[in-house]
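Practice problem. Given the sequence and the SMILES for adenosine-5'-triphosphate, write out the predicted structure.
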Amino acid sequence: MLKECLRMSWQNIKGNKMRTFLTTLGIIIGVTAIITLITTVEGATNEITSQFTALGAGKVNVSVSGTPLKRGLTEDDIQRISRIDNISGVDPSVSFKQHVASEGTLCEDVSIEGRSAAYFTDAGLIGKGRGLTEMDMDRYSHVCVIDTELNANLFPNEDPIGKELVISGISYRIVGMLSDENDNDVMRAMSLMTGGNSGGLAIIPYPSALRITGSNSVNSLTLYIQDTAFTDDTISDVEEVLNAAFNYRDNAWQIINLDSLLDTMNTMTGMMTTMLAGIASIALLVGGIGIMNMMLVSVSERTTEIGLRKALGAKPSLIQTQFLIESVMLSLMGGLIGIVLGIILSMLIAGWIGMTFTLSTGAIALAFTFSATVGILFGWAPARKASRLNPIDALRSM
Amino acid sequence: MSNVILSMRGITKQYRMGDEMQTVLRGIDLDVEQGEFVAVLGPSGSGKSTLMNIIGCLDTPTSGSYILHGRDVGSLDEEELSSVRNKEIGFIFQSFQLLQRQNAMQNVELPLVYSGMHTHDRTQRAKQMLERVGLSDKLYHYPNQLSGGQQQRVAIARALANHPTILLADEPTGALDQQTGKQVMSLFHDLNEDGNTIIMITHDIGIARHAKRIVRILDGNLTEGVAEDA
Ligand SMILES: Nc1ncnc2c1ncn2[C@@H]1O[C@H](COP(=O)(O)OP(=O)(O)OP(=O)(O)O)[C@@H](O)[C@H]1O
Ligand SMILES: [Mg+2]
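Answer key:
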């Protein structure tokens, strides 16, 4: 019997192709909008999140401008910070620009960074050779790690490992090279964006860098957080140490926590998704009213037919079911077309703004249930009207 | 008494027209036995269709009792009435009332769908019924590909499909020319010979004469008539 209902509904939908299309247009537009919006926003959020995570998940940056009496963080300050619970590593960095030389080639404007061993714990940072170790720090070893750019400037098409590099008159042995894509330091990424670092980069143990600059304090520190659930507590502890170190002076230092930035951004995109989905569901609502209108017209058009079916023994409940099936079919058809269009559209958008397209199954499930619900909700009244038609009146109208 | 399949006692029907009540049927008593061919004859507006709607369980009387096939129809609800219409009554309408988008077979199958018969049995039964009315070569024609007489025969096949207790026809020849009307009447005659009980409503004495028994309805009253009455 259900099969018959399906067949009859389908016959009616098929019999009025143009009208069916116009009726489902509202649903098609609504669902297309929902799929496109959710997929695109979700994709963009994922993209940004993964970039942020690569840059600085579990890292907190401390940047110190100091006070007239105390320019930066001393070795003691750094030790104090590294003793704080939940900090797995402290990476002080010193940076300046210098010319470097190797095998008679001079290279101007090279960024020299002093780093600790903690910096090299990131997987994927090193492309070739090794990073700097604790031992290099302790021994003021004359070793360095360079980036691919400096490598290209000094030794095009050659393996740099084992070669010597002269910085400020001291020769450093190249032990490793950074991998190409992995620009995963926030500060460097930012300075790259502002157009610096054209000559390449060489990283040396930070004690050695301090010797070159002749200073005994550090202005930039990256803290590695063990358990990111307690980042905020850890930051308060760090703040305490810093306040004590700089005598509670304002503006002596600044802490940049990328995780909290990420949180803020996630809340924002979440709000945006909800708002856009809200707007799209208004389109669905309008689509539902369109379906209700078409179903009401269809009921009046088929008054005689309904009367006849009742005279031949169709139960009112069956008539109601048949009309409900018809409206659900209509809205699901609209929904399916909308889903396909939405996927195509979001693929195009993803291609256009250059991000990877990921199919959002959640959005599809949402659109599907939404359109089925619209069909039931807006088909109910017309179906009830049909089931209550008096067969005598219906047949007399012939 | 055991072969009385329809029994009406004191059936009245009133319509409310504004403030006043209009009485259309004024206490109808009618018994129909298995295998009868009854014509209900009366002029326009006499209440024929009203009576037919009550017999066909499409409408309920204002008062009176109606026993169909041993069941008191007055006590049934809407869903039960649907099933009585489906199994006990075979309707034949003046204007055929075929579904235009369905072919002859599908039209005949319709009451079988509502009685829950399986597809295979349904096809067989529909074919059988269309053969019975002489349309075995028009099984898959659509109504607009059939003549009026053929359409009415499809409608008759549909009425026969569920082997109903009563074939109920309202002006079955009203939309047909005389020649075709005669053919339909001769089909009715054959069906009655086969044992089908037929109640036919008409205002045409010529058509009524095809029946074995004529009852007259006038101003809402029913009287047994004789075929010779003009
Ligand atoms: N729903 C209704 N409301 C009010 N009056 C009605 C209704 N249905 C029928 N009537 C009245 O009942 C009377 C009988 O109507 P009915 O349709 O039974 O006549 P009929 O004998 O079938 O006539 P015809 O031969 O023209 O078909 C008419 O006067 C009609 O106006
Ligand atoms: Mg009538």
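Check your answer against the key. The pocket of magnesium ion (ligand 2) is lined by residues B 48-49 (CB under 6 Å).
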